Amino acid sequence: MSAAEPVILLGAGGHAKVCIEVFRARGLFDPVACIDPYAKENNVLGVPVHRDEDSQRAFLDRGVKWGFVAIGQNSLRAKLGADLQISGFRLANAISPRACVSPSATLGRGILIMPGAVINAEADIGDHCIVNTNAVVEHDCRVGIACHVAPGSVLGGRVRLEDEVFVGTGASVTPNNVIGKGTVVGAAAAVISNIAAGVTVVGVPARPIIR
Ligand SMILES: CC(C)(COP(=O)(O)OP(=O)(O)OC[C@H]1O[C@@H](n2cnc3c(N)ncnc32)[C@H](O)[C@@H]1OP(=O)(O)O)[C@@H](O)C(=O)NCCC(=O)NCCS
């Protein structure tokens, strides 16, 4: 019999798939359901899908204590994560056994850390964050709530991401820079200065997209 704690996932798309594999690889949590009213499939990697939003309550009533939001979109992940906690669930962390997390790093709740990710000394990762495959969060970084550091991207030492920042695939941020709330850094961009809140920047060096 498995000693893993049952956990429900909100979301049943591609992102849920990778979260399930990380939970299974780690072995601390056992995904027992994906809840998603818009799901296209009836199971995700063998985990049954429930479309009825009341099913959250039913799992709680059956003694499932742990929940996790498996949705890539930052603001929605933050909102649903907060809602799960209000409903009475504890937020699980999905941390790959193939990630390298410093013992001096601080980790929030409801986070996903994918294989190959590196989180270095005294970095701080906020609730609901994703540190994706092979991403690097260097020493003393402050990553706010519900950020996504996408595959292969690199945050240099002491970088600060305010809440809900998205750093695209293969982008990099040089040390000490601050990226404002909700900003999107495009794939492969190089951020070499502070960036304001609520903008999208692309290119090398990164500049705002002018629409
Ligand atoms: C930056 C980004 C969010 C912009 O998306 P968008 O708002 O839909 O913008 P558009 O695709 O309309 O592009 C607008 C302009 O920016 C340019 N642009 C878009 N992304 C760019 C990038 N990463 N680098 C350089 N230029 C880029 C486009 O060529 C276009 O230029 P033009 O106006 O001269 O034609 C998106 O292109 C991107 O890089 N997303 C990251 C995806 C990712 O890493 N996902 C990881 C999932 S795990």
TrEMBL record:
SUPFAM superfamilies for the chain: Trimeric LpxA-like enzymes
A single Pfam family, by name? PglD_N
Gene3D superfamilies registered for this protein in UniProt: 3.40.50.20, Hexapeptide repeat proteins
Which InterPro entries would you find in this protein's record? AcTrfase_PglD-like, PglD_N, Trans_hexapeptide_repeat, Trimer_LpxA-like_sf
> Boundaries of each PglD N-terminal domain copy?
7-80
Q: Which CDD domains match?
A: LbH_AT_putative
**Annotated coiled-coil segments of the chain:** none
According to its UniProt record, which protein family does this protein belong to?
Belongs to the transferase hexapeptide repeat family.
NCBIfam families registered for this protein in UniProt: NeuD_NnaD
Name of the featured protein: Acetyltransferase
Q: Which organism is it from?
A: Seohaeicola saemankumensis
